[in-house]
Amino acid sequence: MRTHRIAALAIAIVLPFCWLDATYAAGVYKWKDAEGNVHFSDTPPPSDDKGGVQGQVQELSLQSDFADAKVSTKPPIANPKPNGGASVALDNFTLRLDTANGNHVTIGRAFSGKDCSQGVDVQWNEGVLDLKGKVAELQVADRFRNFGYRFVRGDADGAGMLADLHMDAELLALKFDVCDTIVSGSTYGTGSRAYVRVRWTLHRDGDSEPLYRGISAGAYDAWRPGGGTKDTILKALAAATDNLLGERTFVDVLTGSSTGPALSAAAIAASDVKLAVAYGNGTGSFRGNSEELLRSAVTVRTSRGHGSGVLIDPAGFALTNAHVVGGEAQVQVIVDDEPIPASVVRSDRRADVALLKFDAKGRRPASVARNEPHPGDPLYVVGTPLSLKLSHTVTQGILSGVREIDGARLFQTDAAVNPGNSGGPVFNDAGELVALSVSGLVNAEGASLNVNYLIPVGRALAAVGAIGN
């Protein structure tokens, strides 16, 4: 079992510019879906023009409203072969909490005083709950076994190696409130409530491609005298595990009924990827061809948030950052406000480049520059910063310099780049693709320092084996 403790921030940090659905405040969102069902989660619902969300989305304060919030639940599906079939082990339970606050991650509030009226922030590094060792694994194991699944615990060295399937869990979001002065009638005591969001990855062994990758949430409300404290988080984790076991796709993979159909489209062999990348001749103009160039830029939406990308082949191949897609094999590409399924064909985490394949519907790809820009040359950054409503935003700057950072050769620019721009195209004055947005420096408050980094397009193409024609 491994946990990840986020290191404290320095004055300035380098952040990847993908807009992630992370825990930035102790709040939840409430909305209705197209069928009128009420949902609660730590992230806002996806919005579109097709009526996917009805009514007004409310952002609720955890301490005042969360007691009444009910996370959508799915009844766990019992193993059709009770205590039989494949065995599973939890190899890693990793913390992926809010990186914006470094080691001081605020996850909720601790209340005291009459009617719990006085509160202070609860921060993870204060030792709210130690998930090291076997604490999280015990909770997950209990839920799996409760519904007839074979769960192998690593009580002894190497015990987990005996499992047929292996699972990794990443804690993406955690919200926790506690009050030690709750009064109910003549009863007085401590109560708490918690919400967790976990990403699960199932594979045959540590080096194999995932058979399943998905996210589930869970909540537990013990806002009453004697309701407990730290155990509430574990009970929320148990609820998230139950929701995972209620997911038919996961159960089908776990029981051998499916080999992971959601991932089959991504299994395009590297040798089968043949791209028709076109190169420019330097005679065009970004401003003169901006309308067509903006059409080559796309928004990439994942289960964690969104980033940007650019079409480089008329057959529907697009480039983005590897950190945008993470470990997901299926994402969505949004073109003309229409979400289109896309497969992750290739992903190079070291280079931070990924190659997607989707139905481009006749769109014209961007042309690639034959020569790299020089310091002082104008650059145009295109992407979807901050919100899906801001797609095809253009900012202008210059190539400030060429840097080597952690062994990677990157372009530096002063052009405005924000979360959500990750993977988006950067054009030269001739309207030719020269780079992809990737990261930038921000201060402790999250404000840009106008020092942003780009991946040269030649390096991006080489990373996914797309040298072009």
Quick summary:
The protein has helices at residues 62-65, 135-146, 231-245, 248-254, 261-264, 290-295, 322-325, 457-463; strands spanning 12-16, 19-20, 27-33, 38-41, 53-61, 87-95, 106-112, 118-123, 150-151, 165-184, 187-203, 212-222, 297-301, 305-313, 317-320, 330-335, 338-348, 353-357, 378-383, 393-405, 408-413, 425-427, 433-443, 448-456. The chain is mainly beta and 469 residues long. A hairpin with a 3-residue loop joins strand 14 (305-313) and strand 15 (317-320).
Polypeptide structure, described:
By secondary structure, the chain is mainly beta. It has 2 domains: 260 residues, no CATH class; 194 residues, Thrombin, subunit H (Beta Barrel). Helix content is 13%, strand content 40%. It contains 8 helices and 24 strands. Strands 6, 7, 8, 9, 10, 11 and 12 form a 7-stranded mixed sheet that branches. It has a 6-stranded antiparallel barrel with strand order 19-20-21-24-23-22. The chain has a 6-stranded antiparallel beta barrel with strand order 13-14-15-18-17-16. A hairpin with a 4-residue loop joins strand 3 and strand 4. Helix 2 crosses helix 3. The longest helix has 15 residues. The protein starts with 11 loop residues before the first strand and ends in a 6-residue tail after the last helix. The N terminus is likely disordered.
